[in-house]
Amino acid sequence: MDFVDWCSVVLNKLIEAESIALDELYLWEDQISSHVLGSMFFGEDFEYNLSKSNKVEEECYASIYWAINELKQLDLVEMNIYEIEDTEKKIVVDEPKRLHKKEYENEEEDFIESLHQSPKEYLGLLPPDHVEGLYESSSENYLPDHVKSFTCNITEKGVKFAKKLFRLWQEICIIELDQDQQTLLRHINLYSPKSASDHYWLEGVVFTEYNDQTTPEDLAAMRTLKRLGFVTPYFRNFYDPFFELRSTYKGLVWDTRRGLTLESMFIDKLVAEWETTSVDFKRELHLDNADQKAEFVKDVLSLVNTQASGRRWLIIGFRDKERTYFGPPDTNITQDRIEQIIAQYITPYIDIRYKVANYRVGHVGMLEIIRDPKKLPYRMKTKMDRGDRRKSIQGGTIFVRHGSHVAEPTDEELQVLQEEGDRARSI
Asked: What are the distances in angstroms from CA 185 to CA 138, 170, 351, 375, 419?
């Protein structure tokens, strides 16, 4: 589990909380309090108190806060924050203290002048019309300094997507990042997420405003990631040269779930089209006996010989009638094992790529068969016995696909294959 999974757990716990009878919950303006959520995760006796709670309790409370805060950014929950009064602050900030509006008005000209080409201004960290919100957080704290407590409730979108967060991942993962942006994002996501045995939270990664190591490209990457919602910038106080970048749900999904998401989108597209002349689906694939090997060789020959555009795939792990996921492929099926069988029974040799892909509901076997027109037509290299009195496959036999069915080619199909190969070889 990681912070992305933790957000899903918190979202579903919120749904559970809202399903409990209202008289069993402490509600505030039709929302569920952070203390109720805390007790659901960490026991009935759990209660966060700003001035009295220890580090572990603050960490637990922060894990719920940051999950709800990120779900809010996705419009999956609504959240109301109750701010701390000055007299309630747990940590006293060293001078200079946080500027209030009256203090700021006396220094307005110097402040605006200081913004000239400031990295903080460039990142949108110092909006001059919102001084009261400038003091946000410190890496010494688990929560932003202004947060006392919060209430929340799930939105209609949250209910709709609670079990289908993958659909949100698709929107996130189709975004392209350049190398500088990827490098910065992975650096932040390496250090910002924190974990304990049963909860997860986010902390800021500290950067300095004036640093010879910080290039214009770095600042441009920061700004782009902020605009996309892949990182959130904070800074500590008005004069502090350090600022922080914190991971977000969206940035973590892009970084840690992009491969899974794009692979799943590709497989889902193949499933939607189902079996064609260039794609074959198998519930299972085993290569333990002669008959299993023979069926596999026929499938490979038919996919590589048939004239069709696009890449050729044999996908393992889906039920035929329901067109739904069945289960992971046999672990004995490997690239080496497949290559051995192809080398033994097919000529000319066929190049293949096999991998076990991460799919959104489990692992899927993906065999890509690479067609070289110069080698057409591909055929059986030698006679292949099938056992159990089934007819042997003779050497030199050719197979093609008619839709989703495997058969020997007609005379016309064989001539077309031969002509395609001749043309490719003559170039």
From this structure: 20, 18, 37, 45, 52
Q: Is residue 266 part of a domain?
A: no
CB-based contacts of 278, cutoff 8 Å, min separation 6? 303, 306, 308, 309, 310, 311, 312, 313, 401
Q: Tell me the average pLDDT of the chain.
A: 82
Do 129 and 96 sit in the same domain of this protein?
yes
Domain check: are 282 and 159 in the same one? no
pLDDT tens, position by position, 103-141: 434 443 443 344 344 555 555 554 433 333 333 334 455
Among residues 190, 182, 192, the alpha carbon closest in space to that of 232 is found at 192
Whether 237 and 285 share a structural domain: no
In terms of domains, do 237 and 319 share one?
no
Nearest of 43, 72, 44 to residue 151 by alpha carbon:
72
Rounded to 5 degrees, φ, ψ at 318 are -125, 140
In a shared domain, residues 291 and 228? no
> What is the helix (H) or strand (E) element at residue 77, kind and residue range?
strand 77-83
Give the end of a domain, one of 223, 258, 293. 258
Contact (CB, 8 A) for 186 and 245: no
Angle in degrees, 0-180, between the axes of helices 249-273 and 55-73, rounded to the nearest 10: 50
Q: Please check whether residue 163 is in contact with residue 76, taking contact to mean a CB–CB distance below 8 angstroms.
A: no
| Exposed/middle/buried for residue 122 (C-beta within 10 Å: 0-12, 13-18, 19+) | middle
Using CA atoms, how far apart are residues 285 and 278, in angstroms rounded to an integer? 18
Residue 79 to residue 153: CA distance in whole angstroms: 7
Q: Would residue 265 count as lying in a domain?
A: no
Q: Are residues 138 and 17 in the same domain?
A: yes
Residue 65 to residue 45: CA distance in whole angstroms: 18
pLDDT of residue 361: 92
Q: What is the pLDDT of residues 309-359, one digit of tens each?
A: 889 999 999 999 899 999 999 999 999 999 999 999 999 999 999 999 999
Kind plus residue range of the DSSP H or E element containing 380: strand 379-380
DSSP-assigned states of every residue in 263-325: HHHHHHHHHHH-S-SSEEEES----SSHHHHHHHHHHHHHHHHS--SS-EEEEESB-TTT--B
Q: Structural domain of residue 236, as residue ranges?
A: 3-258
Q: Are residues 105 and 73 in the same domain?
A: yes
The closest alpha carbon to 249, from 189, 209, 309, 295, belongs to 189
Using the 8-state DSSP alphabet, how is residue 64 labeled? H
Do 238 and 279 lie in one domain? The reply is no
Amino acid identity, residue 273? E
